[in-house]
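lol forgot to send this yesterday, sorry. struct tokens for the thing we talked abt
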């Protein structure tokens, strides 16, 4: 698994996809920036045991993960 390091916010990411997700803003207007931790958490991103930010868990990559909506439905 490749690790992506961001020199902007000094965080590491478990994949380039996770890295891409934390960069927001418009290229054309030079408004690219990094999300803050709270914003990444709000998007479902999580930190693994190595402290790297990862993509939100999905059923595809993490079948054990049950979304909050599903828990509510099952109750
Ligand atoms: Zn960053």
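and heres what i got for the seq, position by position
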């Amino acid at each position: 698994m490749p690790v992506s390091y961001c020199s902007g916010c000094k965080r590491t990411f478990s994949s380039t996809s996770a890295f891409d997700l934390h960069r927001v803003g418009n290229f054309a207007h030079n408004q690219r920036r990094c999300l803050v931790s709270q914003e990444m958490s709000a998007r479902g991103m999580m930190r693994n045991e190595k402290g790297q930010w990862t993509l939100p868990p999905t059923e595809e990559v993490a079948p054990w993960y049950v979304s909050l909506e599903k828990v509510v439905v099952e109750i």
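The chain has a mean pLDDT of 83. anyway ping me if u want another try
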